[in-house]
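Worked example 2:
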Amino acid sequence: MNFIPLPGAFGERARAILAGELAPVPARDAATVVLLRDASPDAQDAAGVRGVEVYMIRRKASMAFAAGAYVFPGGSVDPRDADHAVAWAGPAPEAWAGLLGADVVTARGLVCAAVRETFEESGVLLAGPSADTVVADTTGDDWEADREALIGRDLSMAEFLGKRGLVLRADLLRPWGHWITPELETKRFDTRFFVAALPPGQLTRDVGGEADQVAWLRPAEAIERAGKGEITLMPPTYRTLTEVGDFGDVSAVLGSDRKVETFQPHIAEVDGEMRLILPGQDYRMP
């Protein structure tokens, strides 16, 4: 089905918003990164295609937004992410502004947030000592201390990169999608989705940031498990998994000619029932 019923308090809130009696909460700029690696050779399908695996985190049950759901690393833009002091390599913020459909300041903040949140929640750092190198190892107590300081906002991304002599590698990201949280929600995000490959030599963390469980999953496996009710996927995650799952390897994903579309589920009343209408393909609720 392409809608989710809104019973009880959810329906009442939706009806109040439609009637203009309640103003939606403003959506905060956010970024999320679909971190990819090629599937192992023994995981190829009947046609001999290996496909990709995606790094996913299960959000803690205590989280106010998407509690218990499997998601990609990501989070809100920190105002300091747009700081010009962030050492930068790759496409300039002006180029990203065109790709993301945003102003230059917002684009700079989104790309920096994508790199920062990926490190905070997976331990993977899309940065290097120069414009054509990438950090090979982010394990160790000193890296963990910096990761915790970033999470606690005791350290800005500019300060983190500066103290280590690193530059943010904007060229390792590709724009993928744009989702805006429905007006119904009390916490809303205006989120740009990016894709990136796991850098050679780097390892993801077992648990990090807001996660209580992590896993590398083939997109089809994640979708199948959601269908069985084993895991929870939100509509943006579900759709993104179906999209990247169509590619044979990571290089094909990164090399695709991708046009970013904007999606926002909306509320509607149908035959007296309040519903959240989902854009595009069907989303099969478990």
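The chain has one domain: 3-277. The chain has a mean pLDDT of 91.
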